[in-house]
Write a structure and sequence with these properties.
The protein is α+β, with helices and mostly antiparallel strands. It folds into four domains: 4-240, Leucine-rich Repeat Variant; 281-352 and 409-429, Cytochrome c-like domain (Cytochrome Bc1 Complex, Chain D, domain 2, Orthogonal Bundle); 358-402, SH3 type barrels (Roll), CATH 2.30.30.100; 446-583, Sandwich (Jelly Rolls). It contains 25 helices and 17 strands. Strands 8, 9, 10, 12, 13, 15 and 17 form a seven-stranded antiparallel beta sheet that branches. A five-stranded antiparallel beta sheet has the order 6-5-4-3-7, with helices on one face. Strands 14-11-16 form a three-stranded antiparallel beta sheet, with no helix packed on it. Strand 3 and strand 4 (367-375) form a beta hairpin. Helix 18 crosses helix 22. The longest helix is centred in the N-terminal third of the chain and has 18 residues, at 78-95. It starts with a helix and ends with a strand. Mean pLDDT is 88; it is low at 1-28.
């Protein structure tokens, strides 16, 4: 790599890019890749890869060029801008490399209309800890109209910067009459005074209506070393409403935490049964027989899909769902019912090696638990129970140990006995011949739905410009995941409502060999379809030709014309088509 500039004169550009991407390079040689970016000769599809390498290896001068292109109006835009912001933050966080630039140039991006870009800019502000950005971050943290996620991120950045502005903002939040603002103040306080934050959290949770704020409080405290124990001590000093205890326990489980002291206390305060011992062989045999005799897999699937249980945030079925735990599609065909029961009641007894977790405590007192997905000399990347990927500088890790299963013990507390039997029966049927077999048809299983339908698109089918700007151009944060059932049907009632009578859905198809495919919408009443922004037929007699690459299927669903019918979409190909493709699944 030290001779890369000369090679640039001798080799085709594509060969230079390959060398840059595969050859190990010290930080000082990233300048050659910066010159590639400056040359303007990089194919558009390669810019992101080279940009990523510069952020991984570049020195302060290299990163200054990346920042300049990030904040310029005619520089990086869209996903490239987001990638650059993330890369700059990672360089500061893991390699402690920051360019000598005016951080105030970042200010316009903090208010970017694309929430993904704005979030990446706030994360960079936190990584750089620039006092010049403290004022705007404080304003955002205190403004009544700030969204919860934007407020949380602004406070995290502000507390990372520290100083009088951060202290004043926390004090204002703690004194606010709105309990939700108080909860954010308590969350920020946890970074400087854990005991006081826990005491204030306990006091707030004793208020009957405080359950709405439990996630904010628990996330902050559980992320601190000794945070769960400190909160348990504070809560033990008095009673809290049972409903608040249930919400706290549920949130804790969804976060993949089963800290014994806090979990047992919340279980008692919620009036639930504390189960400490695994079932005996006799009890397992009896439960298995009961599930097979009385469990209903159709009801069980509906229970498995419940948002309050979070099963699909962690597990995929038919390729769609979370990727934190194993895909459960074949589990019923490979595992007996008693294994399913044990895995639900006591997941620590049956952790597969690839899903072992690690507990990491860092020098700033943060506690991280998750599955290690990558590690090198500079950083460790773990994935937590929510699917969030956390990058931890290796030099900051003070303690590391083996953790428990990310699947919480005690989840069955939120199920009736009949619901438990139904869910066991459903999981026990997965992969077996019949309605829960591994799918043979390429149905779209992982969808995204637009959480808020623009008013101008509710009453009429969008034209090309509206489709590109308001639908295809909608920021990623506006779309939420929505998964089909095992058989491919999409239960539209789960996301519909009086204010959501027209839905916009998107699915993805990755084509490896070009050719003709058909987008078959079963029961197509009320459906308008597009592929890559071009109107598409929805019947098997009509095909569209797809080139190699990723393609987006958009559906407009007019619920008033569907009479409550669920939706099922098959991506097939006509006889003789050479197309080869994958219907994209995952989270």
């Amino acid at each position: 790599m030290k001779r890369l500039p000369r090679l640039c004169l001798l080799l085709p550009l594509t060969a230079v890019i390959v060398i840059a991407m595969v050859a190990p390079a010290p930080a000082q040689d990233a300048g050659a890749m910066v010159r590639l970016l400056k040359s303007g000769r990089l194919p558009p599809e390669r810019v992101g890869s080279v940009l990523n390498l510069v952020c991984q290896r570049g020195n302060a001068e290299d990163l200054a060029y990346i920042f300049e292109q990030t904040v310029k109006a005619d520089g990086f835009t869209g996903p490239l801008r987001q990638q650059a912001l993330t890369g700059l933050a990672t360089a500061a966080h893991t390699r402690k490399v920051r360019p000598e630039v005016n951080a105030e140039a970042l200010l316009p991006l903090l208010d970017d209309p694309d929430p993904t870009t704005a979030a990446a800019a706030v994360r960079l502000a936190a990584a750089w800890q620039s006092s010049a950005l403290a004022g705007p971050l404080a304003t955002r943290a205190l403004a009544p109209g700030t969204s919860d996620e934007a407020r949380r991120m602004a406070l995290a950045a502000l507390t990372a910067i520290g100083g009088p502005q951060a202290e004043e903002t926390i004090d204002k939040l703690l004194a606010a009459p709105d309990p939700r603002l108080q909860s954010y103040g308590i969350a920020a306080l946890a970074g400087t005074d854990l005991t006081e934050a826990a005491n204030r959290a306990a006091a707030l949770l004793r208020e009957p209506a405080a359950g709405a704020h439990v996630g904010v409080l628990l996330d902050a405290l559980l992320d601190r070393q000794k945070g769960s124990e400190t909160l348990a001590t504070a809560l033990a000093a008095g009673e809290i409403p049972a409903d608040n205890a249930k919400l706290a326990l549920r949130h804790m489980y969804l976060a993949g935490r089963s800290d014994a002291q806090l979990a047992d206390l919340l279980t008692r305060l919620a009036g639930l049964h504390v189960e400490t011992l695994p079932p005996t062989p006799e009890q397992l045999k009896a439960l298995s027989a009961e599930a097979l005799a009385q469990g209903d897999p159709q009801r069980g699937e509906a229970i498995f899909r419940r948002a309050d249980l979070g099963c699909m945030k962690c597990h995929a079925v038919s390729g769609a769902g979370g990727d934190v735990g194993p895909d459960l599609s074949p589990v019923g065909a490979t595992s007996p019912v008693d294994y399913v029961i044990t895995s639900i009641l006591h997941p620590d007894l049956s952790i597969k090696e690839s899903f072992l977790t690690r507990n990491l405590i860092t020098s700033d007192g943060m506690f991280h638990q998750g599955i290690v997905i990558d590690r090198d000399d500079n950083r460790v990347i773990v994935k937590d129970a929510t699917g969030r990927k956390i990058t931890i500088p290796a030099a900051d890790i003070e303690e590391e140990s083996e953790g428990r299963s990310l699947m919480p013990k005690g989840l069955a507390n939120f199920l009736t006995h009949a619901e438990f039997l139904d869910m066991v029966r459903f999981i026990g049927e997965l992969g077996k011949p019949g309605p829960y077999a591994i799918r043979s048809q390429p149905t779209i299983q992982r969808w995204r739905y637009l959480q808020e339908t623009p008013a101008e698109l509710a009453d009429k089918v969008p034209d090309t410009q509206q489709l590109n700007e308001l639908i295809l151009g909608a920021p990623a944060g506006k779309w939420a995941p929505f998964y089909a059932r095992v058989n491919g049907t999409l239960p539209l009632a789960e996301i519909s409502g009086p204010a959501n009578s027209v839905l916009y859905l998107r699915g993805d198809v990755d084509v490896s060999e070009p050719g003709e495919v058909t987008i078959v919408v079963e029961q197509p009443a009320g459906i308008t379809a597009w592929v890559d922004g071009v109107p598409a037929p929805t019947q098997p007699a009509n095909a569209v030709k797809l080139e190699k690459g990723m393609h987006t299927v958009i559906l407009r669903v007019d619920l008033a014309k569907r009479n409550g019918n669920d939706l099922r979409v098959v991506v097939d190909k006509p006889a003789g088509s050479a197309a080869s493709y994958t219907v994209v699944g995952g989270p």
